[in-house]
Each structure stands twice: as structure tokens, then as C-alpha cells.
């Protein structure tokens, strides 16, 4: 018998969201980007900074902003001075993990109002963000190979394609869809109207990955305000509830895994689904924002999320299932491929998008049919971190 007496967790809602422009070489500092997003979220929630009881900050490698102890450096811009403050950091998974961290703070009963901010200023990393990634691999087994993310992900894409007989034309459709969706997003960095031929005519960066299959170097920030149930119901008539969260860390040795399937995403998704009471995700999830830093990863992750059969997500994409007006609208925001990819802020951008979609406030990006439940997922560190959040209107 367990000696731990479990208390019922409190319900947690998102009551406001904010987003800076996503761009490259923003003149604004990381602090200023954080301030812009946090101010919008506070205004949308109808609260002031003094009402906030704790702050969660998500930001990835310190090298990207060119400072040491970046969480502390961003503290005042994120509104965290004089308050309990936590930095959430699991690489690219940080944006969704930040909402999980904030959810824990409120669900546990410690706080009633928590501000979650995510920021990245990748253009500050000199000469290139890939330089930071060269240092993260095992120094005996992997680093002597001189790995960078581009060629590791090209290996993964090649394995995914070979395992299921997928063609590069199938992968290119993700870029076409997401960059088109981003044309309706006011914060988008690389929105475009493209064809599959345009994508495959772009430069090959590491076969089979082409330039237009890769998300850009970006600067940007996102923020949300979380509230306990009784506070949320006092402040808004349209709270969006965090129904389930999940996370999983697989082995950090990417050479030890079958790269054709992201089992870390599946485990994180199953945890979130169980918490949210979801037994049929393909029927019960109405809009999805999977993590898409490379075009193939959207398809890869949709399969891990149990929203498509293994190796069949490309067929669903080609058939229109993932279009904004399809059966399961996927990355209606434009995703990282279209809006941009400031590492930690990218995942929280997806949470913001679901907040607006579920409230019917996404404007030209709004998916039809009044969606009632959405899913956001992010992925990071050494290709082994999965973070998932399920949001709903009830």
C-alpha cells in the first residue's frame, strides 16, 4: 500500500496569451521580447504584474542570447523580480514543458496566478546556433564525428522514409501546408505560397533535407497566464482548461534508437491522454499543433501522438486530413516551418495558438467547426524529449 496520500489536483486554466513577432536579428533584446509577450498576456487576462504570484521562464541554451545564467538575466523582462521564479529547460521541448511546470504550481495549490514566459534570441549566437549544438553530444562516442543537428536529422528522416517507403515529395508537402497556413499569422517570419517543386528545388543542406524543409533561425517570445479554477471563473467567461500533460525522456544516445518512430512522444502522449480521459485521440482531438522544426518531424510526431498510423501520416497529409479545413487541422498557425522557431518560445507559441483556436479568436487562421479540444507537442534536447499538453474548453 502506498504511504503517499494523494490530494485531488486543482483544475488549471489559461486565461490570457501573448506573442511577439518572430523574426531574425530582432533589434530588441531578449528581455524586451519577453516583456512584449508577457504584457500582452497580462492585458488579455485582465490582470497586472503585481497580481501574479509566480513566474516560469522557458529559454534554451545560454549561448543563444550570448549571456551566462540567461534565466536570471531575463528575470525582469519576464516579470519575475521579487517573485518565486523557475526556469524550465529541456531544449526544444521547453515551451510545452514550461506550461507543464506552471500547471504543477497551480494544480498543487501553491499559487492561483502564474505567468509563463518563453523566449529565444537565436541570432545572438555567433557564428551560428549550430555551434552551440556541437558541444552537447557525448564527448567520447559522438562528438569526434562532428555532429550537427542538420545531419543527425537527415539520418532520422532517411530512416523514416526507408522504413515506410516514403518519398521526399511526401515530406515537402508539410512545408507547403505550413508556410501557406502562416500567411494568415501576423507574427510569422517565413510564410510563403510554395509548391512541392519549390521545396525540392531549394538547396540540399544534408540529404534528403532541403533548405525549405528546415525552420529558420528566429528571435521571439510567447507568454500565457495560468489561473486556478475559482480565479479563472472570476476573471473570464472563456477559460481554456489544461486537461492533461505528459512528458518523457528517452536515452540521449541517438545511435541506440530506431529513428523510424518517436517512442518518447508516444509515452508523453499516453500520459497526457490518460490524465485528460482521452481513449480515442483521433476522434477526441479536434486540432493539433505538433512540433515541426523539420518538415518530416510533423509527420513523425503525429504518428507518435497516435493521431496517424505508423508510416501513414504522409498519406493522410496528401489526402487533406491535416489541412485547416480537414478532419484533423494540424499546425493551423503555420507551425515552426511557417511562423518561425525561436527554440523555447516555439512550443509556447503552439499553446497560444490552441488558446485562440479553442476560444474562436484565431481570425483568418480559425479552423471550422468550433473545436473543443486541442493538443500541443514539443521535442528537444538530444532528440529524446517529448512534452505534450491537452487543452479543452471544459
TrEMBL record:
CDD domains: SCP-x_thiolase. InterPro entries: Thiolase, Thiolase-like, Thiolase_C_2, Thiolase_N. It comes from the Bacteria. Residues 29-189 form the Thiolase N-terminal domain. GO terms for molecular function: acyltransferase activity, transferring groups other than amino-acyl groups. Residues 257-392 form the Thiolase C-terminal domain. PANTHER family: ACETYL-COA C-ACETYLTRANSFERASE (PTHR42870), ACETYL-COA C-ACETYLTRANSFERASE (ACETOACETYL-COA THIOLASE) (ACAB-3) (PTHR42870:SF7). This is Thiolase domain-containing protein.
